[in-house]
Design brief:
- It contains 13 helices and seven strands.
- It is elongated and about 100 Å long.
- It folds into two domains: 4-214, no CATH class; 226-406, Alpha-Beta Plaits (2-Layer Sandwich).
- α6 packs parallel to α8 (173-216).
- It has 407 residues and is an alpha+beta fold.
Length: 407
């Protein structure tokens, strides 16, 4: 997931104006938009069903004549079948996968049925029959859960089909010209309204997404908070068990941070914490599954997916170097001139008996915390790796090469 402070940057204003986000975000929006519209779409199709049946009654009453048989065939064999088919696709198990592709085909076919009725009716009845095309156009824009682009495509087929019929003399030219003008105006009004609704839906989606991001991130550092860490770790651990990949934990503590706050003030302490959090994220976040969070106070935690001991140790070195490169002055430290961190690291294997994510997280943090305690006891500005029976330590201030001791 993107950093909370960058949420607005990956959603450019032109994406809103064009009603098209970047591919990943567009897919997320469409999934949410279509899911929220399912019940409305089902209700709209029930309205369409009653409308088809209602026109069957009024056509027999008002139009009469020999045309009714052809109308009934189109209405009941084609249009009614299409509506019932689309209504069936609004069932939960079909809707997400099949409804949108199907509506792109069924909606134009439904409209072509009305064009055929206009082509086969008498000149006297043509204005009555052709007027239904306006209802169809508005129905596409507002009632079927289609985006503006999809509704425009369906209505374009309707307009082109009716214009083609007029060009070949299948409908009276005078009436057809007038109806095409009215249909064009209806499309302008419908498209404007559909654009406004979809734009509002996209803005609301972005606001909900931003609020969700803010709720999952620490306000000071921009890192994940503990609630988000626990939620995402559940998915990470399930995937690790499924793929049989190790998961490593790095618990990071800023050395003598209280003394730093006392010496420079809390605002400077906040700036220091933000800079270190950014450095840790850049140094440790190497894959989409990795997690970096603020664990509490001046403690940060890194969870590395698919990371064995060698990978974890490499990240420890990278974090130590990244923080050291910041060269944040720390005159209150009794050991060093600049701010440093201590790291405790541990790895859990997927074949461990920890079947539940919260158990795995608790054990991983406990092991990393033991290693962190040793790292701080041995002079800070270093790291200790703990696997339950042995630890591996590196403290740049005291030795250049890591060494291993029995615990």
């Amino acid at each position: 997931m993107p950093d909370v402070w960058d949420v607005a940057k990956d959603v450019p204003r032109r994406g809103l104006l064009r009603l098209r986000f970047l591919p990943e975000l567009e897919a997320e929006f469409l999934a949410a938009y279509r899911a929220s519209a399912r019940r409305w779409v089902r209700l709209s199709l029930l309205v369409a069903l009653s409308t088809v049946l209602g026109f069957a009654v009024i056509d027999h009453w008002v139009l009469g004549g020999s045309r009714r048989g052809g109308f009934d065939f189109v209405r009941f064999a084609i249009q009614l079948s299409l509506v019932l088919f689309m209504l069936a696709l609004t069932a939960r198990r079909f809707y997400a996968r099949f409804y949108q592709p199907a509506i792109q085909i069924c909606a134009p076919l439904f409209a072509l049925g009305h064009v055929w009725m206009a082509m086969t009716t008498t000149p006297e009845q043509l204005p009555l029959v052709a007027a239904r095309l306006i209802l169809v156009a508005f129905f596409f824009y507002f009632m079927l859960g289609m985006t503006l682009h999809a509704a425009l495509r369906s209505n374009a087929i309707l307009v082109v089909a009716y214009a083609t019929a007029a060009a070949f003399g299948a409908v009276a030219p005078t009436v057809a010209t007038y109806q095409l003008f009215v249909l064009g105006c209806a499309n302008l009004i419908g498209a404007a309204g559909c654009y406004a609704l979809e734009h509002a839906n996209r803005v609301a989606f972005l606001e909900r997404r931003r609020l969700a991001e803010v709720a999952m991130h620490d306000g000071l550092t921009g890192l994940l908070n503990r609630t988000a860490l626990e939620e995402r770790f559940r998915r990470l651990w399930q995937k690790a068990v499924q793929d049989r990949l190790p998961v490593s934990f790095l618990l990071i503590d800023i050395d003598h941070f209280k003394a730093f706050n006392d010496r420079y003030g809390h605002q400077a302490g906040d700036r220091c914490l933000r800079e270190i959090a950014h450095a840790v994220r850049e140094a440790a976040h190497r894959g989409p599954q990795d997690l970096v969070a603020r664990y509490g106070g001046e403690e940060l935690i890194v969870v590395l997916f698919g990371a064995d001991r060698a990978h974890a140790e490499s990240v420890c070195r990278g974090v130590i170097d990244a923080v050291s490169a910041l060269r944040i002055s720390h005159e209150a430290s009794d050991a060093r001139e600049h701010v440093s961190v201590s790291i405790g690291a541990a790895t859990l294997e997927p074949d461990s008996p920890l079947s539940f994510a919260h158990e795995a997280q608790d054990v991983g943090v406990q092991l990393a915390d033991r290693a962190l305690y040793l790292a701080k006891a041995r002079g800070r500005n270093g790291w200790v790796y703990w696997d339950g029976t042995h630890e591996r330590e590196a403290a740049p201030g005291r030795t250049e090469e890591p060494f291993r001791d029995a615990v």
